[in-house]
Amino acid sequence: MQTLVRRATMDPTPNRKTAPIPLDECGLSAAADIVGDRWILLIIREVFYGVTRFDDIRADLGIPRSVLSQRLARLIDDGMLVRVAYQQEGQRKRFEYQLTRKCADFLLPIAALWQWAEAHLDRKPSGLQLRQRSTGAELRVGLAPVSARIPADDVAVSFAAPDAHPPAAD
Fold it and tell me: What is the rounded distance in angstroms from the CA atom of residue 83 to the CA atom of residue 63?
């Protein structure tokens, strides 16, 4: 009898808590499958900033070519980016990467991460500013009624004046 009581008290199952939404039905889990990789987030960051060409993205991030190629293909397959051909005079055809509507709508969680990092990770402010195009009002990520939603195409991303944030000394 003593053995049975001991096993019952050691078994954590009765006190185990579970999430109310199964992992395979969770939106956060689905989003993490697409953007839960450091390189993916940084590539999306580059394209949001207007850095859209392979060599420019690679140079900014210091990412290996093979890794960048793989992550760009994944972002295209997931419908976050599209590949658009361009050709400079006298050069071969090349490609740049542009945001899809799906990725443009990802600005909200990206902006929330920027704001969270600046508030909690001992980083100097990046100078990132979000403004509503139609009114010029500064925007911050927060909870609001659905009726107050601002569409992604009405959000402008800009940066503080360059002299406000001098480059770091080497």
Answer: 19
Question: Judging by beta carbons within 10 Å of its beta carbon (0-12, 13-18, 19+), is residue 153 exposed, middle or buried?
Answer: exposed
Supply the pLDDT for residue 90.
92
User: How many of the other CB atoms lie within 10 Å of CB of 15?
Assistant: 6
Q: Can you spell out the DSSP letters for 10-79?
A: H--GGG----SS-GGG-HHHHHHHHH-SHHHHHHHHHHHTT--BHHHHHHHHT--HHHHHHHHHHHHHTT
Cα–Cα distances (Å) from 12 to 6, 21, 48, in that order, read: 12, 21, 46
Phi (first) and psi of residue 130, to 5 degrees? -115, 130
| Alpha-carbon gap, residue 170 to 167, rounded angstroms | 9
pLDDT in tens, 46-99: 999 899 999 999 999 999 999 999 999 999 999 999 999 999 899 999 999 999
